[in-house]
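Researcher: Next entry: OmpA-like domain-containing protein (Arcobacter caeni).
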Amino acid sequence: MSLVKKVVFLIILFIGFIIYSVYSFDFDSSSNTQTLVYTPIKTEISSNDTGLIDKIINFFASDDDKEKKPFNLVLTKKDGIVTMDGIFANQADAKRVSDILNINRDGEYTYEDDIAIDEVLLSKVAVLITPFKDFFADGAKILIINDEVSLSGELKDPNYYALLESITSRMDINLIKDINIANPTLVTTSDEDNINNEETVPVNNNSVTPVVQKENIVKTASSSKDIQLLINQIVAEKKIQFERKSSTITIESNTTLARIAKVLEDNKNIKIEIAGHTDSRGDKNLNKKISTDRATSVKIALIDLGIDENRLKAVGYGEDFPIAKDDENGLSEINRRVDFNIIGE
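Model: Predicted structure:
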């Protein structure tokens, strides 16, 4: 409550007290006595008086003391553009939210009293906006309802999943996710053996009925396109990471490397390019060297896992091939990555 409001509030209370004292004074009792003697009078404030006082207090109460309702908004990607619909206190608050989230297309706004804007929550959600624009197909949504944040939609590329997970894991909010991604399945040698064993089942002890057509499954699953999709899925689930400012692969990335090595071992006819990428921060030539060193580290790790080095090619592209927009400082966790590309058989 401001100082001016406090002063006005005290003055009104003082005037109210004087008025109440005048009306509650017993003049008849005083007139029956020849000598005016002051007698304390025990008074009780009626419920009506209490209601009046409460109204006065509430009228001068600070806006900060009043109960606020959380704002609600929906961000929707449509035709490659993100639009915002929501419930706000006024147009200025709606503009403030769109500025924090960097949304340039207005949707439908509803204005209600006592709607509070949580700028701390908005600043955390703002981290999602760039990958939301770049990674998701049309129809994807971000909802903030009663301070709960949810993200739903379909990723345009399975590679984006691991990048998105890396971003959301550091957001420090309870994000509800409903994300659709491609999930290809590759039939390996062991799977083929199982198909051989389960290919037929006896019927009436006299005949057999085919259960699956093994030839078609193996043919489809062993194509270069399916192998590439499987590798992409492995990296999407958990990307290759490195120690800070070095080309040393983290221990957490060993599982991903082992899974990729298994795919390469099961498909000895393919050759892959290990492509290192960076964001745009720093010197361009230095970034290319860093990306080359990291790609080489991955190549060495795969060789140690038993993959023929003649099937592996390590290349560093630096900042030349971003898949997302860097921030104002040139930083992007998404662009710092290692890709695995099939380049021949």
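Model: Note for the record: The CA atoms of residues 158 and 182 lie 6 Å apart.
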